[in-house]
Amino acid sequence: MSKKLNFAVIGCGMLARSMHIPNIAASDKTILHSCCDLSDEALAECRDIHGALHITKDFKEAINNPEVDAICLATTEKMRLPVIEAAAKAGKPIYCEKPVAQSLDTLYKIQKIIQDSGIAFCVGHNRRSSPAMLDAHRIFRGHMTNPQPCLWRFDREGEIRPEIDGDGKAAISIRINDDWFSWKAWAFTKEHAPHGAMLFEMTHFTDLANWFLDSKPIEVTAMEQGLLSSSIIVRYETGEMANILMCGNGTFGYPKELYEVMGNGAMVAVDHMLEVRTAGITDAPARTTYAMLLDRHPEIGAEGGLPGWLAKKRAACDEATEAADPNLIFTAEPDKGHAHAIDRFVDEINGDAPVVCGIDDTVMATRVAFAAIKSAAENRIVKLTEI
User: Per-residue b/e over 184-220, b at no fewer than 16 CB within 10 Å?
Assistant: First the structure.
């Protein structure tokens, strides 16, 4: 039988207390055994609100507790290497937030530690575990590996259509609409975020591009404007391409993420993990909608999907304006996969499921991000072999 695992959360900042800690406490696959942080206030919240069985300021104490089965690591990147070393030495599986490291040297050290120890290791590229993303990936990869003729596809030249390079190859477009007013202060400092959003956000999306296109990236070209706007193009070994646009001058009043992936005469689109749309894939539903989290307005936008979310968000914005409380805009959030990622990792640890997002995939996604950083700085195409 699969085992319910005792987790120790190391690093109990905002992300951990808003996502990982409540998710671990609520799951029927995990127990919130220990919480470790330097903040007395954070530890008190973990114990009194989320029900942590133990609290400590010593990460080695948490790791070496024989009752602890696995680690959720959500410290800043600077603190991760010693924690990973200690957990690997103790043989404890690790769920680690992204990006795993701020430098490639440290990342490669962590990769070697994980490979040498053989422990299960999952990186918090949580969107891979979003229900909408899982469906979209399954549908698209199924179509790419076994395309079925679409009877209504307009084929102007028919039997005399020429063979051309790139026929059947996939491409993905990823658009990120963010609002930099929401960023924490550390995001603006070279000490804590030396590469800005081109690292701490971009690895999410380079990972997803690699996952959907299922090919080896070989070169990157990028441009950026300060911290807030960047655009990269990734070319893959077998001809696929990815285009990722991130803009921090947007608004939370509109969906943050849009993914459009094309190939073999078909399209799969994921709108903010609220709905998946398809075209040109005969056995796939044209549109599927997904449940929203923490919905304060279930009576509004009951149709769900993108239209339903927009109606709910408009109501939340009006509510926030009237109450002079911007926090009220956060409602009916898309399921980005945070809770599912932990549960799927437990299944991986128990031998019930494949690897969720391992260290090697993360290293590749991070290398692409560093290639983009180098490309933007040097205004040229950068080969992955340089990184």
Answer: eeebeeeeebebbbbbbbbbbbbbbbbbbbebebebb
